[in-house]
Amino acid sequence: MKIVDFHTHAGSYYAYGRPSAAKQVELMLKNGVEKAIVSNINALRSNCHNFKEENDWLAKYVSEFPDNLYAYAVVNPFNGGKAVSEFRRCVEELGMRGLKLHPWLQGFSCSDNDIRPIVEESIRLNVPIIFHDGTPPYSTPLQIANLARMYPEATIISGHSGLNDLWKNAIDGAKRNKNFYLCLCGPSTLAMERIINEVDINQIVFGTDLVNDRGKYFVYRLHKFQQLNISDEKKRKILWDNALKLLKL
Question: Which of 39, 46, 115, 213 is in the most buried spot, having the most CB atoms within 10 Å?
Answer without folding.
Answer: 39
